[in-house]
Write a structure and sequence with these properties.
By secondary structure, the protein is of the alpha+beta class. The protein is built from 9 helices and 9 strands. The chain has a 6-stranded antiparallel sheet. A 3-stranded antiparallel sheet has the order 1-3-2. Strand 2 and strand 3 form a beta hairpin.
Length: about 260
C-alpha cells in the first residue's frame, strides 16, 4: 500500500468518525444533512453511513440516522475492564449519600476529561461526558500531576476555550493554578465549566502511582457554600480518596499473590 493510499484510508476513517460525532451532537441526522455538513457527494455520504449502520454504530429510523445501542457495549466494557472500577463506583455512591453532594469519577483520555460515574444517575449525552481539562476540578487535579511538557501538549491540542466567565483562558494563570492545586491537594472549579456549579477534585492513583482518574465532589453554589466545600467537606473528601487508594493497593497485592 502506497503512502498516498495510507493517507486516503486515514482520511476516510476520520470522515466516518466525524460523521458519527456529528450525528451524536445533533441527536440524529439525515443523509442530506450529512452531505451538506461534510460537503460530500450523495454516494460517498451514503457509503459512510451504510458502513456505520452495517456494523451497528448507527441505526436508520425513517430516513434519519442516530447513534446505535452497540455503543452501550463499549461503554460497559470500558468501565468493567478493570475490577478496581467496581470499588471506585461504590465509593462514588457512598460518598454522595454520606455527604449529600454530587460525586463523580472522571478520567483523562487524549487530553480531555471523560465522565465515567455520576452519583446522580446514568450517563448519557446530556451529562456532558467529555470536558476540557482546564475547566474542571478533576481536570486540574490531573493536570497538576502531569509533567509540564504534557500539559503544554494538551493546551496546544485543545486550547483553553472559555466555557463561562470564570474559565481560565491564560496559560500562565493556569500553571499558577496548578501549583496551588499541588500545595492544597485538590483542584477547585468555581463555575468554570457550568454556570452556578462548583466542586473540588483529587486524583486517584494505582499501586504504581499511575493516575486512574479523579474523584470530584460538588454542587450548586446556591446550596453549597465555598467555605463549607473547602472546609470540613474537603477534609472528609480527601480522607475518602486516601482510603480508596489504600483499598486499591490491597486489592492489587492480592491479585499478585493469586497469579
Amino acid at each position: 500500500m502506497t503512502s498516498q493510499d495510507g493517507e486516503t484510508t486515514l482520511k476516510t476513517t476520520e470522515t466516518s468518525l466525524s460523521i458519527l460525532e456529528y450525528i451524536r451532537e445533533c441527536n440524529g441526522a439525515t443523509l442530506s444533512e450529512v452531505m451538506a455538513e461534510f460537503d460530500l457527494a450523495k454516494s460517498t455520504a451514503y457509503t459512510h453511513l451504510h458502513t456505520l449502520e452495517t456494523h451497528g454504530y448507527i441505526v436508520s429510523d425513517r430516513g434519519e440516522y442516530r447513534i446505535g445501542l452497540r455503543f452501550l457495549e463499549f461503554s460497559k466494557s470500558a468501565r468493567t475492564q478493570d475490577p478496581i472500577y467496581d470499588r471506585i463506583e461504590a465509593t462514588v455512591f457512598d460518598l454522595s449519600e454520606r455527604l449529600d453532594c454530587e460525586v463523580e469519577f472522571l478520567v483523562e483520555e487524549n487530553g480531555r476529561i471523560v465522565l465515567v460515574y455520576h452519583s446522580e444517575g446514568p450517563i448519557d449525552q446530556d451529562s456532558h461526558p467529555y470536558m476540557y481539562s482546564h475547566t474542571t476540578a478533576a481536570g486540574k487535579a490531573i493536570l497538576a500531576e502531569l509533567p509540564d511538557e504534557r500539559v503544554h501538549e494538551i493546551i496546544d491540542q485543545w486550547g483553553l476555550p472559555r466555557k463561562t466567565e470564570n474559565t481560565i483562558t491564560d496559560v500562565e494563570t493556569l500553571f499558577e493554578e496548578l501549583e496551588t492545586v499541588r500545595e492544597r491537594g485538590y483542584g477547585y472549579n468555581r463555575a468554570e465549566c457550568f454556570e452556578g456549579y462548583h466542586g473540588i477534585g483529587a486524583v486517584v492513583t494505582d499501586i504504581d502511582d499511575r493516575i486512574l482518574g479523579a474523584l470530584t465532589l460538588g454542587g450548586p453554589l446556591y446550596r453549597l457554600s465555598e467555605e463549607h466545600l473547602k472546609g470540613d467537606l474537603a477534609d472528609e473528601f480527601l480522607d475518602t480518596v486516601a482510603e480508596l487508594e489504600t483499598s486499591i493497593e490491597r486489592a492489587r497485592r492480592r491479585e499478585v499473590l493469586e497469579e
